[in-house]
Structures are given as C-alpha cells and as structure tokens.
Design goal:
The protein is of the alpha+beta class. The protein has helices at about 5-45, 65-80, 85-95, 125, 130-140, 150-160, 170-180, 200-215, 240-255, 255-260, and strands spanning about 50-55, 60, 190-195, 220, 230-235, 260-265, 270-275, 280, 290-295. It folds into two domains: about 50-185; about 195-295, no CATH class.
C-alpha cells in the first residue's frame, strides 16, 4: 500500500472512530435526558387523594365524599343512632347524589339525599344544607318500624320513595365499611391521603366540631414558636362507650383533615400522621375518652 493510501485509510478510520464516539455520546445524552424526564415525571406524579375504609375489604371515597360521609355519621353519633342507620344513610346518599351536595336533580330534587321542597322536605336552602338534610333523612328513618332489621333497599325506600328502589343495594359494602369506621366500631380502619393542607385557626376547627358533633368540651393549645396548635376533644357527652366514640371522632377528624388543617390525629396510643397517611404507634397517647388533633403550622 502506498504512503498516500495508508494515510487515506488512517484518515477514514479516524473519521469513523470519531463518528462512532459522537453516536455513543449522543446516545448517552439521550438516555440521560430520558432519565431526567422520568425523574421529573415521578417527582410530579399526582397524588391520589382519597379516604379508605378497611373493613371486609378496602373501600374508597374521594375527599368531598368523605367529608359528607363524616358529617352523616357524626349526626348519627350525636343522636345516638346505631351504625345500621349510618349504613342506610350512606347507601342512600351514594345512590341519590354520589354523596355530593349537588344543587340540581330530577325536577326539584336537591342536595345529598335529593330531597324535594315541593314534597315537604324543606325549603330550597334547607335541603341543600347537609346538616339539615341529614337530620331530615334520619327523622324519616327512625319513623320506620324495625328499620334496623330491614334490607337496605326496603329501609331506604321507606324514606325516599324512589323510582329505583333496588339501586340502593349496590352501595351496601362501601356504606357498611365507612359506617363501621366512622361510628368507631372498627378502630384505626379509616385512613386518608390528603396531600398538603392549608393551616387554619383553632376557631375553624371548633366551629366544625360544633356543627357536626354538637357542643363538646375541648381544650385548645395555641401554637408557639416550636409547637403546633392542638385541639383536644372530650367525647363523654356523646355516650358511655368512650373508647368506641373516641374512634368515631378520631376517624371523623381524619376524614376532615383538609378542612381542619390537621397534621395528626391521636386516639389512645395510635396516631394518624398526614405525611404517612396511616395510623402508627405514638409515645404520647391521648387520654381515655379524648381525641387530640394537631394542626399544621
């Protein structure tokens, strides 16, 4: 091979090598870019906000539904109604409104239970007030003889007079699970993933306690430089079953962690931690018959 040919061959090999190195470098940059994109995507993956009741399986509701479920159960607890009443009420609201306080419906039906002002359920404003609407549903339910022993379809239909009475049955499993948790019969069974919460004042928490559960004794510890605000709720006025009722109020507070601005809820020796989204053992238990709500700073 002549000197010119050898030089030309070396030049082509060098160019090929440089091209190969360039291709490898480009591939490496591409892979790095994909990894960065995936990392950023994972970092910004939307959080599924919901509450889950683990009773005979796992049953979920979104946060708006859970808020309304907590109210419906709290009104029953306040009235010393059994868990069966809550199951019937939740199944009814799930069917009628998907457990959302809607401002529309068939003809003049409105609210959680799609109650009709023209049928004597109350004014337009009243039936869209979830506290009033829930109370009116329970007024009708307790007037049904032996409702606790009736099938959900029969009990709900006796109150609602629906055109689709059999539809209530499809919600029984979910309704029973949330009713059991929110009335305290299934301790540590309700957990929620709520994401970030906005800090609220203790007055907001106290007002919601009064609205849903009535005038309960409370102790308020204001926030300081290094200690968050806390509200301790005493459940004794709700009845003699202090341990169960503490779990009822504790689960109520977890379901409302967003509106209450709660970071932690403590019942007995267990604490629901917002960042952990579950109940964990605690070194600072709540005293018997109380629920401690620790607010976001």
């Amino acid at each position: 091979m002549t000197r010119a040919r050898r030089h030309h061959a070396r030049t082509r090999a060098a160019r090929a090598g440089a091209g190969l190195l360039g291709t490898v470098a480009a591939l490496a940059l591409a892979v790095t870019g994909v990894v960065v994109v995936l990392d950023r995507t994972a970092a910004h993956e939307p959080v599924l906000t919901q509450c889950v009741a683990t009773v005979d399986g796992s049953w979920s509701l979104d946060l708006e539904q859970s808020d309304n479920a907590a109210l419906i159960a709290a009104v029953a607890v306040r009235r010393t109604l059994p868990a069966r009443a809550v199951t019937i009420a939740l199944a009814t609201a799930l069917q009628e409104s998907k457990l959302v306080n809607v401002d529309y419906g068939d003809r003049d039906s409105l609210g959680l239970f799609q109650q009709r002002p023209s049928q004597g359920w109350g004014t337009v404003e009243q039936v869209q007030d979830p506290v009033y609407a829930t109370g009116r549903f329970y007024d009708g339910l307790v007037g049904v003889d032996g409702y606790e022993q009736l099938e959900i379809t029969a009990a709900a239909q006796a109150v609602q007079r629906s055109g689709y009475p059999d539809a209530y049955a499809q919600h029984e499993g979910r309704a029973r699970a949330f009713a059991s948790a929110l009335t305290g019969w299934s301790p540590a069974a309700l957990t929620c993933t709520v994401g970030a919460v906005e800090p609220v004042g203790t007055d907001t928490v106290l007002a919601r306690i009064t609205r849903d559960l009535g005038e309960l004794p409370t102790e308020v510890t204001p926030a300081s430089a290094d200690v968050p605000a806390q509200v301790v709720v005493h459940v004794d006025p709700l009845g003699a079953e202090g341990e169960r009722l503490a779990w009822a109020v504790g689960h109520w507070a977890v379901a409302l962690a967003g509106p209450l601005g709660a970071d932690e809820v403590t019942v007995g020796d267990r604490t629901w931690v917002r960042d952990a989204t579950t109940w964990v053992p605690t070194e600072t238990p709540a005293t018997s018959g109380t629920v401690r709500i620790t607010l976001a700073g």
